[in-house]
Write a structure and sequence with these properties.
It holds the Pfam family HET. By secondary structure, the protein is α+β, with helices and mostly antiparallel strands. It is built from 19 helices and 29 strands. A hairpin with a 2-residue loop joins strand 28 and strand 29. The protein is elongated and about 100 Å long.
Length: 681
């Protein structure tokens, strides 16, 4: 390392292990700093860079007053024209400040030591990234005003410095007080929070200035931008098992709070983009859990960790081995989304969650991979996207309704809100209606000039939806009369699809060309019309008067994850007339018990429909006798067992029963013939 001779103000080189005691300068750079090349030359004119030379001269004079023969100043002791030397110096900087006998902190914007304490915290020195390690590393530190009069030591001004920086006073005491504490005793999240409000001229330096604070060495790559901070976190992961490195939150949002459901789950990296994201993490520390270790490692698939992932009603949270300093009985957790390849991706717009130890103990630990980088845009299939299949050659998609985007290259229709600020959105809890406008080719030879497909998705529960679809043929803005008699007409169906772990909707647009095609598509068309009917007639006014419809249309009901009121109504209508008060209480108890224990009791609807059909076969009689006969009916017992074992098997048995039941088929045919074409979505 190079040191300035305090008497001659000339550079001398030393092996670091043999370096004499020296003073070191901490300051903010100005426009007249003296460089390595200038301090070496014989023709240095002090007037050309008066302010910079004055700092060097004053530092040397102050060192001589304290009996030190050497000083170190970063502006002139490093040859910044050599990238190798610059990289070595930055990786050694913390150690050089730590080994100095004393550090002089020069505050050029604090005019005088008189009254300096009132404006100390407003100094620019407290906002720069490089000065953070210069504050923490030295064993002794003295603040000087612009006139080079001492303001006080780091220990004597500890309370003011702590308020200005957010650093606890324990890390600001001087070595002479006997209680000097190395900053590496703080958690990763705490140390990151100290840098959250600091700035650097170059974005890479926001990471490089923290190398010494975390005891990390890594090559410098100027030009990589904010990726330098990602590399820093990756190096920290390789050297520590402190999971507080993941305990960050989006700037401007609460660091810890309830999970939000505003329709946008912005999925991103497990690692923070910048120290700013740790602004509220100053009180986060590792949790000491006896008998449990939390090692994690960095792999090509992301961070591999034995993470406890708890699944709640609204998604997954990964429980971290860290807590707030004043919360002894809770742990912190991050909101995550399970991707199609099994990895977990962090929901970056969600605050940290609080999880109690009971939830932690009931959630088993398992190896998980957590994404550390965003997936390529073209490989991400948005949750809730719509896939257009089977588009006839005679049709082309002209445009889609506002708020959606159609991609001819991928065949996907996505919501415009799937990308927010360059971040990918995967969740869509709100209902939506999509209009697809298709144009015949050529339009002049067709009895219609526009074909409109309308898709409605209605959210019924956190993981279930009702999907309906209809198609309209129009000419000059008016519906075409007698469209069912046209030889060249189209129909559309929509179905839900689990696409590599993500929910999607498939819209199939077909042409009525031949009888075989017609017969093949009859059942999907009936299903679409039935769902449209339920959307129009049932779910807008679900009450006891209209809830009987739910017992006649099995397919949509089997897809619901029931809410308690709906389950209670169904049990009342199935088991007994709803005028018996005592039975109402019983059914409420049954409904609450079943829905509380079963997050998705779809099989319960199969049981209810079984009872409804068996009840109609048993006939009339006293309610008690009918109920006893129902319980003893072997058909009911078999169907209940099948329902519990296999939803699909029970569904097809029930379909056969419903089709052969006299009161269901006429209603279905009446609806298909008279209702579907005339009722709008």
């Amino acid at each position: 390392m190079r040191l300035l001779n305090a008497n001659t103000i000339k550079l001398e080189e030393f092996n670091e292990a043999d370096a004499p005691p020296y003073a070191i300068l901490s300051h903010t750079w100005g426009s007249q700093e003296v460089t390595f090349q200038e301090i070496q030359g014989d023709g240095l004119v002090p007037g050309s860079k008066a302010a910079g030379y004055e700092k060097i001269s004053r530092t040397c004079r102050q060192a001589l007053k304290q009996g030190l023969g050497y000083a170190w100043v970063d502006t002139c002791c490093i040859d910044k024209s050599s990238s190798a030397e610059l990289s070595e110096a930055i990786n050694s900087m913390f150690r050089w400040y730590q080994n100095a006998w004393v550090c002089y902190t020069y505050l050029s914007d604090v005019p005088s030591a008189v009254g300096a304490k009132s404006i100390l915290s407003k100094s620019r020195w407290f906002t720069r990234g490089w000065t953070l390690q210069e504050l923490l590393a030295p064993r002794r530190l003295v603040f000087f005003a612009a006139d080079w009069h001492p303001i006080g030591t780091r220990g004597s001004l500890g309370e003011l410095v702590s308020q200005a920086t957010g650093i606890p006073g324990a890390f600001l005491r001087d070595d002479g007080e006997g209680t000097y504490k190395m900053p590496r005793g703080a958690s990763v999240a705490q140390r990151m929070s100290w840098a959250s409000r600091r700035q650097t001229t170059r974005p890479e330096d926001l990471a490089y200035c923290l190398l010494g604070i975390f005891g990390i060495n890594m090559p410098l790559l100027y030009g990589e931008g904010r990726n330098a901070f990602v590399r820093l976190q990756e190096e920290i992961i390789r050297h520590t098992d402190d999971q507080s490195v993941f305990a960050w939150a989006h700037p401007g949002e609460p660091t810890i709070g309830s999970r939000r459901f505003d329709g946008d789950a912005r999925v991103g990296s497990l690692l923070a983009p910048s120290p700013e994201y740790f602004g509220g993490s100053g009180d986060i520390m590792p949790a000491d859990i006896p008998g449990e270790s939390a090692p994690f490692s960095l792999t090509s698939r992301g961070v591999r960790a034995n993470l406890r992932v708890f699944r709640g009603d609204w998604g997954h949270v990964g429980i971290l081995h860290c807590r707030r300093s004043n919360e002894l009985t809770t742990l912190l957790a991050i909101a995550v989304t399970r991707e199609s390849d099994g990895r977990l991706a962090r929901e970056v717009d969600q605050p940290l969650q609080l999880v109690n130890f009971r939830t932690w103990s009931q959630t088993p630990a398992a190896p998980n991979y957590l994404r550390t980088g965003a997936a390529p845009e073209n490989s991400q299939i948005p949750e809730g996207c719509l896939i257009v299949e089977g588009l006839p050659e005679r049709l082309r998609i002209r445009h889609v309704s506002k708020g959606f985007t159609w991609s001819a290259s991928t065949g996907l229709i996505t919501r415009d809100s799937n990308w927010v600020g360059g971040t990918y959105v995967t969740r869509w809890p709100e209902d939506f209606v999509l209009h697809i406008f298709l144009q015949p080719k050529p339009p002049k030879d067709s009895p219609y000039d526009l074909v409109t497909v309308t898709v409605r998705v209605r959210r019924l529960h956190s993981r279930t939806e009702l999907v309906a679809c209809r198609i309209e043929h129009s000419k000059c803005g008016q519906p075409v009369a007698g469209v069912n008699q046209l030889p060249e007409r189209f129909f559309a169906t929509v179905r839900k699809l689990d696409l590599f772990g993500r929910k999607a909707f498939v819209i199939e647009i077909s042409e009525w060309k031949d009888e075989l095609r017609l017969l093949e598509r009859r059942l999907p068309l009936l299903q679409m019309r039935l769902r449209s009917f339920l959307s129009n007639r049932f779910f807008d006014f679900m009450d006891a008067t209209n809830a009987w419809r739910a017992l006649q249309h099995w397919e949509p009901i089997l897809e619901f994850a029931l809410a308690k009121p709906a389950c209670g109504i169904a049990l009342r209508l199935t088991l007994w007339p709803p005028s018996v008060p005592q039975l109402l209480r019983w059914t409420d108890m049954i409904a609450n018990a079943t829905t509380r224990r079963l997050p998705q009791p779809a099989w319960l609807w199969a049981v209810i429909l079984s009872l409804r059909l068996a009840w109609s076969r048993i006939g009339h009689g006293a309610p008690t006798r009918r109920f006893t006969s129902l319980l003893l009916d072997p058909y009911v017992a078999v169907l209940v067992i099948l329902s519990l074992l296999s939803i699909n098997l029970a569904k097809w048995i029930l379909l056969l029963e419903i089709i052969t039941t006299n009161w269901t088929l006429p209603l279905l045919l009446y609806y298909v013939r008279h209702r579907s074409e005339s009722r709008p979505l």
